[in-house]
Amino acid sequence: MKSKNNLSEFINANKNTLTFKIWLYFFIFAIALFIILWFMQVIFIQSYYSSMKKSEVHKIAENIEIEYNNSDAYEDYIDNIAYKNAASIFIFDKNSNMIYSSNNSSGQGNVTQMPTRPVTIDTSEFVEKIQSSPTKRVNYTLKIDKFKSELYVYGMFMRDSGNYLVIVSSIDPIDATTTVLQSQLLYITFIALLIASIISVFISRRLSRPIKNINEETKKLARGNYNVTFEKAGYKELDDLVDTLNFTTKELAKTDKIKKELIANVSHDLRTPLTMIKAYSEMIRDLSGDNKEKREEHLKVIIDETDRLTTLVNDMMDISKIESGLLVLNKETVDICELVKNIVERFKMANNLSDFNLVTDIPKEAYVRVDKSKIQQVLYNLISNAINHSSNSKEIKEKIDLSPKKVKISVIDNGIGIKKEDLPHIWSRYYKSTESFKRPDSGSGLGLSIVKNILDIHKADYGVESEYTKGACFWFELDRVNKPKKEIAKIAKSERINNKQDNK
């Protein structure tokens, strides 16, 4: 009873394992194969043997017909065939007179005796049955209950000679053979089950070992260890999984690094304006007193630092929405030329940019289908970036180039430029490099990363061209679209009004 309980516990504990299931599948397959073979041995082997025996008799008859028509020594040939196949063979004329009887027959015209047992059959009506048959062929089986055997009688008309051939062959039961085969099958099945069990255990362990290794490494990965490496197992499916996991591990490591850098940078960027706000608030409380100029100076710093803090928070929210896939584009047809002009005018109106020269080279109009607010953000960030990195030559140029299918917007500065080794990294969040590309205190460090993500969502081409100490050119391309019909209608209406006024 105890061993039975132990077996049950073992099965319950391992029934969901790969090893157990593979063994079970092998075992079920072996049992099913045994049942199929056993069924075929018991049910079909006798009928199959009988069918093959009859087919053999038909073939013998065809060969005898050929030999009888082409050879004078047909008797020796037929006697040999009859002996080898334990059959009685007769040839009759059209009047049922026997022309030939094989050595296995009694030699009497209407009686045959099988060589293996004392059985006789009447052959006197064979010719008449063949003659009355439309095919000139007859066959039937005679049951011999005493011996559990059958006699198969086959007769045919030999057209070339005009005579009739009759073959009588015994179809013996194969019970003894079947019994032997069944006994052998039982042993074979037992051995097959044993071998299947051994092979299944070996294969299942070989297959499950790399899966267990993958599982162990995955647990380490889940605990935050990104230094794990998944080893290939030599199986395509598992190797594909390993490649995916290794790629995922690298990406998670990158993400973790970015997260840590983000936390460090954000902590610094948040701490600085908060410290300034607190310090100047205390100065207002303790030092400004009734001095209006000092109070306004201190308040201006607080307002500027608050704006800086707001910009940082907004940029962080934007980047988070974009990277999480929550950002939805609300596309509309926009005159990109007018949009750039308006943004440049806003920058010119800013008090702190009075010493900057914002130059434009913009056509009259060009239409694109974009999310207007997001493209505005791209332009704001690119112009702000150019301003933050300008040198003594404070000239910023906004340029639009048109082609039949594309609109290319460029923002060009004459600043310090970007070193060649820094160019691939400038779109990254909080990227810090050499002196050629330093994040200014006025920015959030997320501007170019936001530009990249917005343009990626729009499926736009973009890039940067720069030579160190000679400035930089940031550009992006958008697909041109036709002018909206409502704009065409508006222009047409305006022209009609002007014409009427001119006529007056």
Alpha plus pi helix count: 11
- The largest beta-sheet arranges its strands as 2-1-7-6-5
The top-level CATH class of the domain at 329-488 is: Alpha Beta
Largest sheet descriptor? 5 strands, antiparallel
Give the low-confidence spans: 107-118, 434-441
Based on CA atoms alone, the radius of gyration comes out at: 50 Å
- Indicate the CATH architecture of the domain at 329-488: 2-Layer Sandwich
Given the helix and strand composition, which structural class is it? Answer: alpha+beta
Helix fraction by DSSP (H/I, runs of at least 4): 55-70%
> CATH homologous superfamily of the domain at 329-488, by name?
Histidine kinase-like ATPase, C-terminal domain
Q: Based on CA inertia axes, which overall geometry fits?
A: elongated
- Provide the residue-averaged pLDDT: 76
What is the N-to-C succession of helices and strands?
A: HHHEEEEHEEEHHHEHEEHEEHEEH
Distance between the termini: 117 Å
Total count of strands: 14
CATH topology of the domain at 329-488: Heat Shock Protein 90
Descriptive report:
By secondary structure, the protein is an alpha+beta fold. It has helices spanning 2-14, 18-70, 74-84, 126-132, 175-222, 236-288, 292-323, 336-349, 372-388, 447-457, 485-503; strands at residues 87-92, 98-101, 111-113, 120-122, 137-144, 149-158, 163-171, 331-335, 357-361, 367-371, 395-402, 406-413, 461-466, 472-479. The strands form 4 sheets. Strands 2-1-7-6-5 form a 5-stranded antiparallel sheet, sandwiched between helices. It has a 5-stranded mixed sheet with strand order 9-11-12-14-13, covered by helices on one side. A two-stranded antiparallel sheet has the order 3-4. The N and C termini lie far apart (117 Å). Residues 107-118 and 434-441 have low confidence and may be disordered.
